[in-house]
């Protein structure tokens, strides 16, 4: 949902749609997969401004407050992180040179670089780390994601100028992954003293770019090269200052307008183009389509497992078996996205495929609905129980999902299930989300590791009026899965963590707590003159090493 009031993680150009909130987890640089690397065009050319069009304007630029995909794309060039996460899920030094963990898993000690400065001239040090973590944890910040990523955080302190110590309330094996995200990116302490509203417009970091004017509503943001930048993480192919003088990012919500601006030469690159446009650009001379599969939660329908008709696992399983989700996605999106076979996409470290459970079997769907008591039929052919029609209310607020929603509605009708499409404004969406006034919601959620399952299915993340917007839109609450989440947090190594999260994926699939549809693909469409592009570990476009041939 960035995919007004919608907050979302990743959102394919096709429109994966729910409006609520979802996480936007970006980490670090990885190789360009679209053929536009510097090696193909000789030594990188210095200078020039890249003109980039994006589909969504973030409501807030501050990553400590906002989880939206648009925000992370705009903030990652500005803020660096303590650690860098690779596409394989391993961790490398970044602003922290090294770290160690106490035997009980409650204390993390980071030795920091001593040669880093913020773009406002302030030195990066341990006090800055403490100020940032405390800012995220402060209830006044009203963090929509970052605070949940460090829910185990207790306190931090500066041991000395370049050593920071973090103390946890309980072990959390996901801490390094959280610290690698831009949501926990390090901002200048002086700016953190400003109001949340001020930070939503302008932030200051240590990154390869800075902004003088900040985010301008309904226009975009201009990023300018930080000439002093020399602390990129070691896995990055480029080091030192960016090649580009700047990046001019403009918000162009309409897909046709973004595509037209690119093909007419008004801009150099665009993100979030729909499958029709990307399919055409693949065949258009002078343009390159750079792609990377998004890791994290697949684009899915998320049933309300707590109340309503989908509180019955048999009905959820019937929908999973009775609708040919893969075929619908292939037809609607022209085969641009791989079919999903589990809660997490194939590119996610720690993913465990659940293919057999997702087989299309209309006969089995019918048997499940019969056993659930929906044996009657009304005059329109819909199943009934005790004279009540089997009705599923699909809550959404993104018109880009209309085509898929119509196809799902038609397929459900063949099963005797009425899908009522409730397309509402963002404010209404959030109110109904908090009140649990829906039967099913759709979205995807990008993240470079399986710990995202805890964010999406953890009991503490069920959205309520008291808790506010949160990520467990399936309202899933299972004691066994909660036990597994605690075990995963206490895992002593990544292999053990992945094994435990494999069990979580099997249990979630057994309970049909999510109905996966397809695995989203990140795209950056660009002129051939754009070189050196890449993607972050979670699939977002990375332009740190980008350059222009002309």
Architecture blueprint of SSEs:
Elements: E1 29-30, E2 49-54, H1 69-75, E3 83-85, E4 91-93, E5 96-101, E6 107-112, H2 126-137, H3 146-149, E7 153-160, E8 163-168, H4 175-179, H5 189-192, H6 196-201, E9 209-210, E10 220-225, E11 246-251, H7 255-263, E12 269-271, H8 275-281, E13 287-293, E14 296-303, H9 313-322, H10 325-332, H11 362-371, E15 376-377, E16 383-385, E17 388-389, E18 391-396, H12 402-415, E19 418-423, H13 426-434, E20 440-446, H14 452-457, H15 479-489, H16 494-510, E21 515-518, E22 521-527, E23 530-531, E24 534-536, E25 541-542, E26 547-548
Parallel strand pairs: 2-11, 2-12, 18-19, 18-20
Antiparallel strand pairs: 1-24, 3-4, 5-6, 6-8, 7-8, 9-10, 10-11, 12-22, 13-22, 14-20, 14-21, 15-16, 16-17, 23-26, 24-25
Q: Can you characterise this structure?
A:
By secondary structure, this protein is of the alpha+beta class. The protein has two domains: 29-293 and 522-548, 3-Layer(aba) Sandwich (D-Maltodextrin-Binding Protein, domain 2); 296-519, Dipeptide-binding Protein, domain 3. The protein has 16 helices and 26 strands. The longest helix is centred in the C-terminal third of the chain and has 17 residues, at 494-510. It is globular and about 70 Å long.
């Amino acid at each position: 949902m960035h995919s007004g009031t919608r907050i979302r993680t990743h959102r394919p150009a096709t429109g994966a749609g729910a409006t609520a909130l979802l996480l936007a987890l970006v980490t670090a640089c990885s190789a360009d997969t679209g053929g536009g690397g510097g090696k193909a065009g000789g030594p990188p050319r210095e200078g020039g401004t890249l003109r980039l069009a994006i589909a969504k304007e973030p409501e807030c630029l501050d990553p400590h407050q906002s989880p939206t995909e648009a925000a992370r794309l705009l903030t990652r060039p500005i803020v660096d992180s303590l650690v860098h996460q690779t596409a394989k899920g391993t961790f490398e030094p970044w602003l922290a040179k090294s770290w160690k963990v106490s035997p009980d898993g409650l204390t993390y000690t980071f030795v920091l670089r001593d040669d880093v400065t913020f773009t406002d001239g302030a030195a990066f040090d341990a006090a800055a780390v403490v100020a940032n973590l405390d800012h995220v944890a402060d209830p006044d910040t009203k963090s929509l994601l970052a605070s949940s990523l460090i829910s185990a955080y207790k306190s931090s302190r500066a041991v000395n100028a370049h050593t920071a110590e973090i103390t946890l309330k309980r072990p959390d094996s996901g801490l390094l992954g959280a610290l690698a995200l831009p949501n926990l990116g390090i901002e200048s302490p002086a700016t953190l003293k400003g109001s949340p509203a001020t930070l939503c417009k302008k932030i200051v970091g240590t990154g390869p770019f800075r902004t003088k004017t900040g985010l301008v509503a309904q226009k975009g943001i201009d990023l300018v090269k930080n000439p002093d930048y020399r602390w990129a993480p070691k896995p990055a192919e480029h080091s030192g200052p960016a090649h580009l003088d700047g990046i001019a990012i403009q918000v162009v919500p309409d897909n046709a307008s973004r595509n037209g601006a690119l093909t007419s030469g008004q801009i150099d690159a665009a993100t979030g183009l729909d499958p029709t446009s990307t399919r055409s650009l693949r065949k258009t001379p002078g343009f390159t389509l750079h792609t990377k599969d998004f890791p994290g939660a697949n684009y899915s329908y998320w049933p309300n497992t707590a109340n309503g008709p989908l509180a019955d696992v048999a009905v959820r399983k019937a929908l999973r078996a009775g609708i040919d989700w893969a075929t619908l996605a292939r037809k609607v999106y022209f085969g641009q996205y791989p079919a999903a076979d589990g809660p997490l996409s194939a590119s996610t470290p720690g993913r465990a495929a659940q293919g057999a459970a997702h087989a299309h079997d209309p006969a089995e769907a019918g048997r499940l609905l019969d056993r659930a008591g929906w044996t009657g039929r009304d005059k329109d052919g819909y199943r009934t129980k005790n004279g009540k029609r089997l009705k599923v209310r699909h809550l959404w607020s993104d018109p880009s999902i209309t085509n898929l929603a119509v196809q799902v509605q038609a397929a459900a009708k063949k099963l005797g299930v009425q899908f009522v499409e409730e397309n509402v404004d963002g404010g209404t969406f959030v109110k109904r989300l908090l009140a649990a006034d829906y039967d099913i919601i759709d979205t995807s959620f990008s993240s470079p590791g399986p710990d995202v399952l805890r964010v999406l299915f953890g009991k503490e993340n069920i959205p309520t009026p008291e808790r506010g917007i949160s990520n467990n839109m399936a309202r899933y609450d299972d004691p066994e899965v909660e036990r597994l989440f605690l075990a995963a947090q206490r895992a002593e190594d990544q292999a053990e963590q992945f094994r435990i999260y494999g069990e979580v994926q099997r249990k979630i699939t057994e309970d049909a707590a999510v109905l996966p549809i397809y695995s989203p693909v990140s795209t950056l469409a660009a002129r051939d003159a754009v070189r050196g592009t890449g993607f972050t570990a979670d699939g977002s476009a990375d332009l740190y090493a980008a350059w222009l041939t002309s």
